[in-house]
């Protein structure tokens, strides 16, 4: 079991560029989510999905798109990168959205937008 | 608005002593509370959780206490070990999950 994998580990973008952060899990989890971690702010939920074909917005969705075409994959798209999107991004998965189910996190992607 | 707050950004304790990390929340609809531990350059890992119908949950050296009337929970680590040095995030679940800003724990040998 690889668990939750994220690529790339590091990325530098220029303002206005677009990119996709990849996330995959091999635990057959229905619930997947994306967070960003900023100093003094903790982890903030960007988007989440309760199953293939279903996505919803979290606390800070602006500037990001997601899709969930398969159970395994949950990519996060930055449409036009801005310096405010400089952050560390974590993908997570769990059996369900219930707090009783442990969320497993990927190792993170450190993104810098110049 | 921050629905989950960790007001202490850092805590330093001596090896063998107790570490107490605190967390406050504002939303009474949260039904599960969790603690995650994070080492540098790694993703957070689950540590311990508690349902809103309980007031205490223990797992080895780790105990979480929940005071619903005060909307407060705490994580006790006894005895603290140098390997416990990490950032600890408090989280609350009620549909989606909200995290606190984290407390950096340093355990000195």
Q: What can you tell me about this protein's structure?
A:
The complex is a heterodimer of chains A (about 110) and B (about 110). Chain A is mainly beta. In chain A, about 0% of the residues lie in helices and about 50% in strands. Chain A is built from no helices and 11 strands. Chain A has strands spanning about 5, 10-15, 20-25, 30-40, 40-50, 55, 65, 75-80, 85-95, 105, 110-114. In chain A, strands 2, 4, 5, 6, 9, 10 and 11 form a 7-stranded mixed sheet that branches. In chain A, strands 1-3-8-7 form a 4-stranded antiparallel sheet, with no helix packed on it. The model of chain A has no long low-confidence stretch (mean pLDDT about 95). Chain B has about 110 residues and is mostly beta strands. In chain B, strands 2, 4, 5, 9, 10 and 11 form a 6-stranded mixed sheet that branches. In chain B, strands 1-3-8-7-6 form a 5-stranded antiparallel sheet, with no helix packed on it. In chain B, strand 6 and strand 7 form a beta hairpin. The chains are: A mainly beta (about 110), B mainly beta (about 110).
In short:
With 114 residues, chain A is an all-beta fold. Helix content of chain A is 0%, strand content 51%. Classes of the chains: A mainly beta (114), B mainly beta (109).
Relevant terms:
heterodimer, A: 114 residues, mainly beta, seven-stranded mixed beta sheet, B: 109 residues, 11 strands
Itemize the secondary structure elements and their pairings.
The complex is a heterodimer of chains A (114) and B (109).
Chain A: E1 4-7, E2 10-13, E3 19-25, E4 31-38, E5 42-51, E6 54-57, E7 64-66, E8 76-78, E9 87-94, E10 104-105, E11 109-113
Parallel strand pairs in A: 2-11
Antiparallel strand pairs in A: 1-3, 3-8, 4-5, 4-9, 5-6, 7-8, 9-10, 9-11
Chain B: E1 4-5, E2 10-14, E3 19-25, E4 32-38, E5 45-51, E6 56-59, E7 62-67, E8 72-77, E9 86-93, E10 97-99, E11 103-108
Parallel strand pairs in B: 2-11
Antiparallel strand pairs in B: 1-3, 3-8, 4-5, 4-9, 6-7, 7-8, 9-10, 9-11
């Amino acid at each position: 079991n690889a668990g939750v994998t994220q690529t790339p580990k590091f990325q530098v973008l220029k303002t206005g560029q677009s990119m996709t952060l990849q996330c995959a899990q091999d635990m057959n989890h229905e619930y997947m989510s994306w967070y960003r971690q900023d100093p003094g702010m903790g982890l903030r939920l960007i988007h989440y999905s309760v199953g293939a074909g279903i996505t919803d917005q979290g606390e800070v969705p602006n500037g990001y798109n997601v899709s969930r075409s398969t159970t395994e994959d949950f990519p996060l798209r930055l449409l036009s990168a801005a310096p405010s999107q400089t952050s560390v991004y974590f993908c997570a998965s769990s059996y369900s959205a219930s707090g009783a189910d442990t969320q497993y996190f990927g190792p993170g992607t450190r993104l810098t937008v110049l | 608005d921050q629905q989950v707050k960790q007001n202490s950004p850092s805590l330093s304790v001596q090896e063998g002593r107790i570490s107490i990390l605190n967390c406050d929340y504002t939303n009474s609809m949260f039904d599960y509370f969790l603690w995650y531990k994070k080492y540098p350059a790694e993703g957070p890992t689950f540590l311990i959780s508690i349902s809103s119908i309980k007031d205490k949950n223990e797992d080895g050296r780790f105990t979480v206490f929940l005071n619903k009337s005060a909307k407060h929970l705490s994580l006790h680590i006894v005895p603290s070990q140098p390997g416990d040095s990490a950032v600890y995030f408090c989280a609350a679940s009620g549909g989606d999950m909200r995290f606190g800003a984290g407390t950096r724990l340093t355990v000195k040998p």
